[in-house]
Amino acid sequence: ICIREIYCRYDRKHHHSYLKSKNPTSPPSSPLISGSSSNLTFDFVRGNVGVGNVPYGRLVAANAETFPVLDGRNLAMAYVHYEPCQLFVPHSHPFGDELFYVAKGKTMRASFVDIISGKLIVTEIGEGQVSFIPRASIHYQQNLDCKPALVLSFFNSGDPGAMVTFQSSFPNIPYDVIKESLGGGKMVNEQLIEHIKAKVSTLLAVED
User: Fold this and answer.
1) What GO molecular function terms would the record report (predicted)?
2) Per the domain annotation, does 202 fall within a domain?
């Protein structure tokens, strides 16, 4: 679930067989590793495994890749520290639904585009509340308060994957396709589009 342009290795390998399986909640592919309790624990606060490369706050992911005990168990979790007013830009998780739980914070906004109707669904929740974000839907989250917030995200996949909508698509689409998609005209020129491409290529989170 690291915020980067990937389909995480586990789900990319297994999602076709998962869809075809009559029993998608099949047993884990490997047993628990015995002999050390460290194999069964994951440190979101002090550890350096699964830490996302984000410019603001802190994002740490426990999934089948970073926490191998989750391999085959259809579980993953993310620990996200939001700075005041921080917005995580639109992204999607192609292989997992998300429960977005506010562990600390006054008001968090969690919004997604419904894949059936195309409508933007907006929820605002506070400490102790949870919001649901469907699998593969484009969504974004924002801390609406002037104080830091802590969010825990839970997924029903060992690696739900993460695709940052603009970062993974816009910079790679040819100029003429983007121009036509934006309606053409003199205002939409190659210089403007290249400027936008350069800006979104590394953008993951912003602060107002």
Assistant:
1) manganese ion binding
2) no
Total of domains in the chain: 1
Burial class (CB in 10 A: 0-12, 13-18, 19+), 91: buried
Residue from 167, 100, 98 nearest 137 by CA: 98
Q: Residue 13's closest CA among 99, 71, 69, 76?
A: 71
DSSP string, 5-50: SB--HHHHHHHHHHHH-S-TTPPPSSPPPPS-GGGG---SSS--SS
Q: What is the pLDDT of residue 186?
A: 80
In a domain, 187, yes or no: no
Alpha-carbon torsion 24, 12, 55, 203, what sign?
negative
Q: Is 176 helix (H, G, I), strand (E, B) or coil?
A: helix
Contact 53, 202 (CB under 8 A): no
Residue 31 has a pLDDT of 54
pTM of the model: 0.75
Walk along the chain (208 residues) in steps of 10 and give the mean pLDDT of each run.
37 39 47 65 92 81 95 95 91 96 97 95 98 96 96 96 83 86 84 82 54
The pLDDT, as a whole number, for residue 34 is 52
In CATH, what number is assigned to the domain containing residue 29?
2.60.120.10
User: Does 207 reside within a domain?
Assistant: no
How far is Cα 159 from Cα 74, in angstroms, rounded to an integer? 8
